[in-house]
Amino acid sequence: MALSFTIIGMSDNPRPFFPPEVMEVISRSEFFSGGKRHHQIVEKLLPSGHKWIDITVPLDEVYQKYRDIDSHIVVFASGDPLFFGFASTLQRVMPEVPMKVYPYFNSLQMLCHKAQIPYHDMHIVSLTGRPWKEFDNSLIEHRGKIGVLTDRQKTPDEIARRMIEYGFTFYRMHIGEHLGNPEEEKILSLSIEEASKANFSQPNCLVLTIEGNAPKRRFGIPESEFDLLDGRQKMITKMPIRLLTLQRLDLCSKRTFWDIGFCTGSVSIEARLQFPHLDIRAFEIRPEGKDLMESNSRKFSAPGIEYHIGDFLKEEIPENELCDAAFIGGHGGHLEEIMRKVYAHLSPGGCIVFNSVTSNLVAAGSKESFISVANSLGMSIDEPMHIELDNNNPIDILKAIK
Fold this sequence. Notes:
Radius of gyration: 27 Å
CATH superfamily of the largest domain: Vaccinia Virus protein VP39
Strand content: 15-25%
Oligomer: single chain
Number of strands: 18
């Protein structure tokens, strides 16, 4: 018999119930697999002489055991195996192996049923062994209802503390512990502040709902609202220039954005708020940039910006790491070297944008240098965008495309 899988979803109920069709599959099978907790729950239902394979890390060893058996294997998994579950993993790792799935309610469905929360409009994020990115994106977008799968590091209290740090306290957190287990199941509804101070039992999941009126998402932040470098407003890209710069970068169609010479972090923060899908890497040589980026990111609820303090030209960037768009906000007299380093990582169709003060002789030289370097690299140059703002010096927004 060739390798094939039947994957059975289940809850944490110590007295499991399966329909007759599933019990028939179990009774005529020899090989079974699942977590240790699953084995404890279903062991009494398995035929005598059965063989069990624990699903433990490293998973590659588990997959090899499956291949060595080369027979039909019944796998028990929590909830719906196709909902961030083991069936999805097996489809990715062994796409050629036949599979039949018998689902159960997933944990977020069970929580919504218990808490009587309609979930047809819920946005779902998994933090189980995953970074914060998708969760942060959901908060920045002010999603009205967010279902979150947790793990032992990203617990409800840890999640709540991150939300407080970045000002997302207008949500309410609904937590389900040991869902499906009538002896241990617990449903809680807490404010974000209350959740940040509580302890929670594993396993759990949660749903966030907006409570009251959420603040409106910003589009264009006045420079006076940022924490500034030594209070110097000249060290920040003015709001209209900033928004035009983002338009020139065409970030809605990009995946990765580099902000070189971020200073206060204004360009990165505005980009994060307007284009939450972006992976943003920001670079600043001045050590003061660290505190400015952190304070301004918290002030404007913009988590998830990856920043680096130090000389960009000395930054070790993996050779295969690509950038779709880059803004050079500061170059310290090394514009050519910075452009060439960016170009080496720029994806085809990617762009570099640079703002030049046209009435300043040094800046004018930078404009000529930008155009000269772009030409030497074989980049195409868009028509410069010329703008004069109030009594400030005129600006040319320059763009070169690979």
